[in-house]
Amino acid sequence: QVQLVESGGGVVQPGRSLRLSCAASGFSFRSFAMHWVRQAPGRGPEWAAVVIYDGSDKYYADSVKGRFTISRDNSKNTLYLQMNSLRGDDTAVYYCARGSSTGGRYMDVWGKGTTVTVSS
Amino acid sequence: DIQMTQSPSSLSASVGDRVTITCRASQDISNYLVWFQQKPGKAPKSLIYAASTLQSGVPSKFSGSGSGTDFTLTISSLQPEDFATYYCQQYNSYPLTFGGGTKVEIK
Question: What DSSP assignment string belongs to B23-86?
Answer without folding.
Answer: EEESS--TT-EEEEEE-TTS--EEEEETTTEEPTT--TTEEEEEETTEEEEEESS--GGG-SEE
